[in-house]
Write a structure and sequence with these properties.
Elements: H1 7-27, H2 32-84, H3 88-114, E1 117-121, E2 124-128, H4 134-141, H5 147-162, H6 174-179, H7 183-259, E3 263-267, E4 273-276, H8 278-284, H9 288-291, H10 296-300, H11 303-317, H12 322-325, E5 327-328, E6 331-332, E7 338-339, E8 341-349, E9 356-365, H13 367-404, E10 409-412, E11 415-422, E12 430-437, E13 441-449, H14 454-473, H15 478-493, E14 499-507, E15 512-518, E16 524-526, E17 534-535, E18 556-559, E19 565-569, H16 572-575, H17 585-595, H18 601-616, E20 625-632, E21 649-652, H19 653-658, E22 672-676, H20 684-690, E23 694-697, H21 701-712, H22 722-726, E24 732-737, H23 743-758, H24 763-783, E25 808-814, E26 818-825, H25 832-845, H26 854-861, E27 865-871, E28 875-883, E29 895-900, E30 906-909, E31 914-917
Parallel strand pairs: 21-22, 22-23, 27-29
Antiparallel strand pairs: 1-2, 3-4, 3-9, 5-8, 6-7, 8-9, 10-11, 11-20, 12-13, 13-14, 14-15, 15-18, 16-17, 16-19, 19-20, 23-29, 24-25, 25-26, 26-28, 27-28, 30-31
Helix pairs in contact: 2-3, 2-7, 3-5, 4-7, 5-7, 13-14, 14-15, 17-18, 20-25, 23-24, 24-26, 25-26
Length: 918
Amino acid sequence: MQPQPHPAQAAGAGSQGFFREALAWALDQYVTVLALLAMTALVTYAILIADLRSQEGSAAALNLAGHQRMLIERGVLLALKMQHAETHAERQKIRQQMVETVTLFDNMHSYLRNGDRLIRQGPRLLAEPGELSPELRTIYFADPINLDQQVQSYISAVKKLLSQPVDQIDLDNPGLQYLLSTAPEKAVEGIDKVVAFYQKDSDFRLQNTQNLQAVSLVFFLGAIVFSGTFLLNPLVNRLKDSMASLAEQRDFNDNIINTAQALIIGLDPFGRINLFNRYAQEISGWAEDEVRGIDFFDTLFAPEQQDTIRALFLEVMEGGHAGEGGAEIPLMIRTQELVDIIWHATVVRDPATKLPTLFLITGDDITERKRAEDRLQATLVELEALSGRLQEEINLAATLQHSILPSPDIVLPGVQGKATLLTSSEVGGDYYDYYKVGGYYSVLLIGDVSGHGVAAGTMVSAAKAGLYPLVNEGVTRPAEILRSLNETMVATAHQSLLMTMGCFSLDSRTGHLRFANAGHVLPYLRRRGEQEWRMIEGFGLPLGKTLDTDYLAVERELQLEIGDRLFLFTDGLVEQESPRGQPFGFDRLEAVLSEYADAPPEVLQDQILTTLRAHCGREHFDDDVTLAVIEHSDRVEAQAGAGESNQLVRVTEGFYRSQSDHFTSPTSRQLVVFMSEGEFHDLLPRLSADGIRRVLPRDDEFYHRLGWEHLLAQHQTTPDDDIYQLVPDRMMERSFLLTHSDDKLFFMEEIRAWLAELGVLPQEHLDFIPIVLDEMVENSLYGAPRDGQSRPFFIKGTERALAENELVRINVAVGPETVGLSVTDNWGTLTPAIFLDHLTHTLAEGVEAGIGGAGLYLMWRMSDYLQVRVTPHRSTQITTLWDLNRSPQIGLRTGFQFLYHSEHDEVVSHDASRFTFH
């Protein structure tokens, strides 16, 4: 009977067997040794780095706490220096230093008070949320120290001191008295306790780092001993076996080279042949023994080809990529004949020295392919000539088609809009057109031919030709227009192509709209003040289908009000597909229309096309796309020679003074500009009664430098603030956002100090600007916030915090010759009538304390240009400009423009002959 092993021995044998299996598996992994050493190094590195970063954060906190102590003492010292400074400039400079000091001190305190951990990322230390230790929490928030309360008291005292004009600070100032008391010393004592805590914590962490370094060293040395004993020695034996396998692989590769059906030639770094496979011998007629060691270029290439192939050799040897693409160079065989070969080349380098050891060239015999390519090239030349002639004809057709389309900027009586037409090929099948009749009828058409290309373009040209006599005849009835064009389409295409079309006719005197549809996609209508767009239904057969269609039976009539919008488009817009085959569809279109319902036409169109391109994933489309945004802008009275209703009406001062009757404009009051020739203050009551709110001095050099046409076009809306439009060449700019009424004085002083530091503004301008800024901010804080009954929400001068959704923003811009100031709020309660009335009243009665409107008057009189832009119940933006080339003065020549973007809300009160707004 065999003796049974002891249980401990059996367990030991089992453990040894498991270890041998694990070791055998490790030997099969070529990177085991490297991985083990790398892992050991990484673990050691990670442990040390984590500990060092922790120490770095503690050291940074210690540094911040120590720096806080210095900043408190610096704040007290600066306060004393400010009180003893002799000049305003010195006090202003010290004040700026105190602002920077208290801001830095506040930031440091917030890090330490919150227990934030400072972690290095790259060259910077970043704060991460942390938690205070119990000992620090006691120091910061518990009596008797309560360091956080002391620091907040110190910061509040400094800010109160800085809120006072620098020239009025004396020893009786409460903020200064606080700084000179023992309170800062108590805060310093608390900070010293924080410094002591962080010093103790840093010493503790340093001792831990030393212990970790010792443990890491022992761990790393153990890993090296294990790798050398159990892994490196077996791997050396395996390397010897691999060398033998490589020798066998080399013999196998030689067999492959000699059986390959391509020329394979090897060269040494000097261009001598040392490898010449069997296929190369068969093609060239040379044996390998005959060419081995001789110059490759001189032997196998004609003299005129040797430089080309040698240049390829040199470039590849220097690390270039010329040999990868292939080079077609004839090979000269033993009989001196040339064989067409395409060559590819690469270089083999020594792994250690990286120097070239073998230049390997492969060549493919392309003689037969070359002959076929020559025949194909001749055919392509003929096709190219034919294609060129066809392309010239298509380009001519595309040019002619674009020439027959009207301007994309639609300007008609009572109508303004924007159209865009994008063709999927050179010649498209979409079409839009418009014309006016009698000074008040506006006719618009949009069409789409079934298909695109030259044939569709021919139909578009036929439609344009068919419309021409209707324009001359003054036809305005949509049904009559479609009937006539249908006859043209039937005669042109003989029912082989169809064209859908929508036709609209607006009587801008009344807003009466007629609409007839010939199978076109239904247009959208949006009523002013609404977000929703609704389709206008109207159905009829496409043009060119049959002569029996009665478009009069499907004609519709609607009533448009000023501000109503139409959106016209072709079906190519909604049928464009995404890469997954999903059409753009009406839902996506309606979402964009609703989101940008009040945007200018060009902005709305850009957003639609941007969304469409994002959906399709490309810039160009598979079908033609046309869209147009049309707005009923105003009502027009039929007057002989009245001209376009949407053009500016310039009223000269001489003409205006010669008229005794009440001035009535044939166009929108937004578009009436009074051209003053001097002081016009005596005309303000008349201008107010006539509602003329745009006055520009015609001969003022400053206004011409601002851009005369640019000023005249200010009634057009813009997404940018006016100050950036009026001071486009600004060198410096600042922006300030108020959150409390107390911010006003602080920001005013900050702006004045900043402008003074720039050194480009004369002292006179530095005196004027704060006065105007004060009135502008007061208007936004107390004059603008009003309820539906125009009653102010706040009493002037009361302290108040701005609501979360309330905006009061100050912008300052300085250019080489101009300085601009603007204040924006989001109330939009100021109206032209109020503005003009305040100017007139204050001019007649003078500036009276407690009487509203004096601020607007001062803004006008103390600036070189005043502009007010109001979007009712949305925003008010007041902008003032000064000419740095002349001294500021309180004159009566300053121009002003009040731009009120809600013309449809403006009506005339016949009783008072004044403008009122609802």
